[in-house]
Design goal:
It is a single chain. 50% of the residues lie in helices and 17% in strands. It has 32 helices and 26 strands. The strands form 4 sheets. Strands 10, 11, 14, 15, 16, 17, 18, 19 and 20 form a 9-stranded mixed beta sheet that branches. Helix 8 runs parallel beside helix 26, helix 10 packs antiparallel against helix 26 and helix 14 packs antiparallel against helix 15. The longest helix has 41 residues. The chain is elongated, with a radius of gyration of 35 Å. The structure holds adenosine-5'-triphosphate (ATP).
Length: 895
């Protein structure tokens, strides 16, 4: 049978579909699922295939520079300079191979990344709910949908409870549509109105549902629309675009200079053909065509390193942005804290009188009095003990702590749920900050509600005392608040409980039952801060990055934890969601500058905080996990979703996912981002200074009517042998020790003024050394001069690649082997040079004369000069900046 989304599944009763798809109430067996997987293929949208090697080669051949080079080779053959032509062709081919290897490597790392972010689904297999990769779903599978998950395939709903799905990816409609499994629709019903269906790639924003998979992979509706998902564009990061545009500018500059060199040589009546060849090869060498590819590799390798540490980059530009982050807005629960809740204090009406909560241990001795509170906590609860993992909890840790509490009081959670079956649920949401269930207690329905104290007290009219229920008084409320504040200032999360008996269970799923309740009591639970977070926050502080806590929890609890973690400093302001609601955009702008803690915040307010921070010029990273966090995650410069507790919706909206939900992982990722950014700068500086030295050498010689110090093949060889390897090695340079000790770099400062100055001055140093070597050799003959110039420029570049590792620290402050890749690549490049100069037949190909010991000594001495000058330059800059910093701060160190 052809299971396609185009079939009228929405027009058939659910039972008929189950029969048709041969699925029982147990779901599919593993064997049947495997058979179907073979028959229907994996549940994935077909990606545009990565380019084949031939296609890549073809793209290389279409590159104008390669065409010019091949033209130059042909010209050489025509002029019977077969050797030179052969060398050019050889170099072009090796260059093409290297580029293809680079591109393949970059593609492979991106593919590996994509695999890491593929989704999972909960399906019923052999009668059990199993969490499987969404790609393994087959038609006939029964799957479960819940608030926050992405629909993994096209599904005919079998059951739904307040289910709402946002189908913008399919229909363009941003408002979530309500679903109803029980409807049978007309065959002609349009896609957007099929309320009994859920379609692949859409997002569940509310409620729950169960359904049967009717189409997978390319047979789904989205598969029909998106015949192919183009994965190539992901390479086009702003950085790559910037490098490409800089490349274009340099191409124009290079071509102008080459034309100038040609014109001057022509004016001096230099032999035309060698002049043309030199001009062409110079043009080729000045164009940093390898730069975007090298940058992509540096980025991709950085992304792999981040993934190993638990930070999965979903959008490549995030790596660059991360390095520039100035504020990290973090959730509290689970990110700054362990999300391991334990109830440590309890209070009921009798304690309210005394104004003090009771430690759990002491309450245990008074078992009976706390029964109502314990029962409400266990019944108004969706967590359960993990049957496969005794002692651990499945579900929300806040609720888990309540089950553990009931167990401590000798109440078995399972027995309680059996004795008092659930009839209705009004789920928790971060706006109401409450949750309610209706359970049958002794044959009668009873509402149990739990939630944040300031949200629960207003819906309570009575209080439960040892003598029974009575109206709640202002003194009671005052006293309850005092107890709650006491718990909160001990950094405890406070939950309040209430109940009421009712006559009938509401029929409408969305009915509100939270009014006229009877207050039962409070619990306070500890959620210890993660041990390593305090140090990570200090690292951020040193790095000029502000940490801001945004939490749904109570103000006092939030501040207590913020103080413990050093997020809150004297003078910082604290705002609650209610206070934020009163603010204008302008007030927001002022508030965000000084606020380090936001409490009782709703996701909408999170969005406004991000927007205000961005308006004040900050680069904002923001964490989130819930469905409603998606807009804030999208708006942030770097949206960070939680891997463990995050919903698919939040992950989908994010730029980065942290697999362990840990704040420290974000800081590690920022550090890696800064390292990547710096390494790309090192590569740029190294390659461009080298190119400038080549062009200056030739330009100056031509200007004064000297023969070319370097031949076309020399220039090409330098670009291939002595530039590529050290450039790649600089791309993986370990981070500098002070990488998290300076302020974040402003975005768009990759080509900062200092870098441009360094490129030009360092290019001049190398050109000067090369010209001196040339003139010394020229006293014998031209091939000697060229050999001296060729070796000096190549070895200067190799030596000064080591200087590039820091712009401020001396070359001796870093070990020779610290960057092993650089050590090896310098050795290999030097060996390649020696092969060229020392082995006679090869030497002849490159038209070089042999060099004696004196000349070698001279070359070595001259090649070291640029590095020495750069080191002196560093020392001077270091001195000047220290002096000016002292003058600015008046000798004081501001924190
Ligand atoms: P964050 O993760 O952003 O730091 P949070 O997890 O503390 O915030 P929410 O989950 O929105 O924030 O919870 C806000 C408040 O709602 C809590 O302080 C608590 O009083 C109450 N609350 C939390 N979980 C539940 C729940 N399952 N049922 C009822 N009330 C809850």
């Amino acid at each position: 049978m052809d299971y396609r989304s185009t079939m009228p599944w929405h027009a058939k009763p659910a039972e008929e579909i189950c029969k048709e798809l041969k699925t029982s109430t147990e779901g599919l067996s593993d064997a049947e699922a495997a058979l179907r997987l073979k028959a229907h293929g994996i549940n994935e949208l077909r990606k545009k295939e990565n380019r084949t090697i031939l296609q890549m080669l073809w793209e290389q051949l279409k590159d104008p520079m390669i065409i010019i080079l091949i033209g130059a080779a042909i010209l050489s053959f025509v002029l019977h300079e077969a050797l030179e032509g052969g060398v050019i062709l050889f170099i072009v081919s090796v260059n093409a191979v290297i580029s293809i290897i680079q591109e393949k490597k970059a593609e492979a790392s991106l593919d590996a990344l994509k695999k890491m972010t593929t989704g999972r689904a909960v399906a019923l297999r052999q009668g059990e709910e199993s969490n499987i990769p969404a790609s393994e779903l087959v038609p006939g599978d029964i799957v479960f949908l819940e608030d926050g998950s992405m629909v993994p395939a096209d599904i005919r709903l079998l059951d739904s409870s307040s289910l709402k799905i946002q189908e913008a990816s399919l229909t363009g409609e941003a408002i979530p549509s309500e679903k109803d499994a029980d409807k049978i629709l007309d065959e002609s019903c349009s896609l957007g109105d099929r309320s009994n269906m859920a379609y692949s790639s859409t997002l569940v924003t509310y409620g729950r549902g169960v359904g049967i998979v009717v189409a997978t992979g390319m047979n789904t509706e989205v598969g029909q629309i998106a015949h192919m998902i183009d994965s190539q564009n992901e390479f086009d990061t702003p950085l790559k675009k910037k490098l490409t545009s800089v490349g274009k500018t340099l191409t124009i500059v290079g071509l102008v200079v080459c034309a100038l060199i040609f014109a001057i040589g022509f004016f001096y009546k230099q032999p035309l053909i060698p002049l043309l060849m030199t001009a062409i090869s110079l043009a080729i060498s000045i164009i940093p065509e390898g730069l975007p590819a090298t940058a992509t590799i540096v980025l991709a390798l950085g992304v792999q390193r981040m993934a190993k540490r638990g930070a999965i980059i979903r959008k490549l530009p995030a790596v660059e942005t991360l390095g520039g982050a100035t504020v990290i807005c973090s959730d509290k629960t689970g990110t700054l804290t362990l999300n391991k809740m334990t109830v440590t204090q309890i209070a009921i009406a009798s304690d309210v009188g005394s104004g003090k909560a009771r430690p759990t241990q002491s309450a245990l001795k008074m078992n009976g009095s706390y029964y109502e509170l314990i029962r409400a906590g266990a019944l108004c609860n969706n967590a359960e003990f993990d049957p496969d993992n005794p002692g651990s909890i499945l579900g929300d840790p806040t609720e888990g702590a309540l089950i553990v509490l009931s167990q401590k009081f000798g109440e078995d959670h399972g027995d309680l749920e059996e004795d008092c079956p659930r009839l209705f649920e009004q789920p928790f949401d971060s706006h109401r900050k409450r949750m309610s269930t209706i359970n049958e207690v002794g044959g009668k329905p009873v509402v149990f509600t739990k939630g944040a104290i300031d949200e629960l007290i207003p819906v309570c009219t009575k209080i439960l005392t040892a003598e029974g229920e009575r109206p709640i008084t202002d003194e009671d409320i005052e006293s309850v608040r005092r107890i709650s504040d006491g718990m909160a200032s001990d950094a405890l999360r406070v939950l309040a409980f209430a109940k009421k008996s009712i006559d009938t269970v509401p029929e409408d799923d969305d009915a509100d039952v939270e009014f006229g309740l009877t207050f039962i009591g409070l619990v306070g639970m500890i959620d210890p801060p993660r041990e390593e977070v305090k140090a990570a926050i200090k690292t951020c502080w040193d790095a000029g990055i502000r940490t801001v806590m945004i939490t749904g929890d109570h103000r006092i609890t939030a501040v207590a934890i913020a103080k413990e973690l050093d997020i809150w400093h004297k003078g910082d302001t604290v705002y609650t969601g209610d206070e934020l609601d009163e603010m204008s955009d302008n007030d927001y702008n002022n508030a965000v500058r000084t606020t380090s803690v936001y409490a009782r915040v709703t996701p909408e307010q999170k969005l406004k905080i991000v927007e205000a921070l961005k308006r004040t010029g900050e680069i904002v990273s923001m964490t989130g996990d819930g469905v409603n966090d998606a807009p804030a995650l999208k708006a942030a410069d770097i949206g960070i979703a939680m891997g463990l507790s995050g919903t698919d919706v939040a992950k989908e909206a994010s730029d980065m996912i942290i697999t362990d939900d840990n704040f420290t992982t974000i800081v590690d990722a920022v550090k890696e981002g800064r390292r990547v950014y710096r390494n790309i700068q090192k590569v740029i500086q190294f390659l461009l200074a080298g190119n400038i030295s080549e062009i200056l050498t030739i330009f100056i010689a031509t200007l004064f009517n000297f023969p070319a110090p370097l031949l076309a093949v020399h220039i090409l060889w330098i670009n291939l042998a002595t530039d590529t390897l050290p450039a790649l090695a600089l791309g993986v340079d370990p981070p500098e020790a002070d990488v998290m000790k300076h302020k974040p770099k402003k975005s768009g400062t990759l080509f900062e003024k200092a870098l441009v100055i360094r490129v030009i001055t360092q290019g001049c140093f190398i050109a000067a050394a090369t010209l001196i070597a040339f003139f010394i050799g020229l006293r014998d003959d031209l091939p000697s001069g060229q050999a001296m110039a060729f070796c000096t420029i190549a070895f200067s570049q190799l030596f000064y690649s080591y200087s590039q590792r820091s712009n401020t620290k001396s070359i001796f402050s870093k070990g020779l082997f610290e960057n092993k890749a650089l050590f090896v690549s310098v050795l290999v490049s030097a060996a390649l040079m020696l092969v060229l100069v020392v082995i006679p037949p090869v030497r002849e190909v490159f038209a070089l004369s042999s060099l004696d010991a004196d000349e070698w000594l001279m070359i070595l001495g001259l090649s070291l000069i640029p590095t020495a000058l750069i080191e002196i330059q560093k020392a001077i800059w270091h001195f000047v900046s220290k002096y000016s910093h002292r003058r600015q701060t008046g000798g004081q160190h501001a924190r």
